[in-house]
Amino acid sequence: MSVKPNKAMVLAAGLGVRMRPLTDHLPKPLVRVAGRALLDHVLDKLRDAGVSEAVVNVHYLPDQIIDHVAARARPRVIISDERDEVLGTGGGVVKALPLLGPAPFFLVNADTMWIDGVRPNLARLAETFDPARMDILLLMAPTTSSIGYGGRGDYAMLPDGALRKRREHQVVPFVYAGAAIMSPSLFADAPSGEFSLTKMFDRANEQERLFGLRLDGVWMHVGTPDAVHAAEEAFLQSVA
Predict the structure, then answer these.
(1) CATH number of the domain where residue 85 is located
(2) Cβ contacts of residue 233 below 8 Å, gap of 6+?
(3) How many Cα atoms sit within 13 Å of 13 on the Cβ side?
(4) GO molecular function terms here (predicted)?
(5) Residue 1 counted as domain residue
(6) Under a CB-based contact definition with an 8 Å cutoff, are residues 95 and 87 in contact?
(7) Is residue 2 a part of any domain in this protein?
(8) Using CA atoms, how far apart are residues 218 and 234, in angstroms rounded to an integer?
């Protein structure tokens, strides 16, 4: 069973500390890569996946993001304003749930960037997501072929896509690429206030309802100013 999400949550409220000095006066989602803001790259992919409404949360330099998306028609952007509070990634989603509705939705980090392979990865996520077995389906990038990533990975993946979280001293082959499909029912008894989405990932993992899909293409970890240039080179080569 697959789904066709027509709504998405875009996480755009972060401080972008590691991207300084580029983010001293600019929110990280508006940092430009290959001539377009990171946020626009994400919204374009959501549009192409059939998303009609994207909820974008804002906190740091919020008016810049609000002004930037004001003219966009597809997807229509709804702002979830967190300028007066710090909610974290999990608390941000909880606040936006009334805007997202009862059906599974895409969750995308505003600063994630990837080059699709033969088929768009968001469409592949929608085809793979099975609400009967899954609460969360994460897009997982192989660490060895990702650009700008030097960590130990996040999860190992079983043949059926089930994920197993990396233990402290392990090295695992997959890193979360910043895009997912989630069932809102997962948040039925979520904490209030500030918390990380990792808490929800762990909860789904404990119940064996956390799955992953291997990214087809190349994921770019645009976490620092140096990584912007590497991402631009890879993106421009892909469209040449």
Answers:
(1) 3.90.550.10
(2) none
(3) 27
(4) nucleotidyltransferase activity
(5) no
(6) yes
(7) no
(8) 9
How many domains does the chain fold into? 1
Across the 240 residues of the chain, what is the mean pLDDT of every consecutive 10-residue run? 89 86 89 92 97 97 95 94 94 96 96 93 97 96 88 92 91 94 93 92 94 95 83 79
CB 194 within 8 A of CB 87: yes
Predicted local confidence at residue 240, as pLDDT: 60
The Cα–Cα gap between 85 and 70 comes to 22
Please give the model's pTM, rounded to 2 decimal places: 0.94
Q: Alpha carbon of 60 to those of 13, 26, 47, 172, 189: distances in Å?
A: 6, 9, 25, 33, 28
Alpha-carbon distance 186 to 193, whole Å? 16
Q: What is the pLDDT of residue 176?
A: 95
| DSSP codes of every residue in 157-207 | E-TTSBEEEPPTT---SEEEEEEEEE-GGGGTTPPSSS--THHHHHHHHHT
Residue 75 placed within a domain = yes
Any bridge partners for residue 58, and if so which? 81
Tokens read off for 179: 């895009």
User: What pLDDT was estimated at residue 47?
Assistant: 97
pLDDT given for residue 170 in this prediction? 87
Query: What pLDDT score was predicted for residue 211?
Result: 98
* Nearest-10 crossing angle of helices 38-48, 62-69: 40
Residue 218 lies in a domain: yes
Across the chain, how many H-helices and E-strands are there? 6, 13
pLDDT, residue 1, reads 62
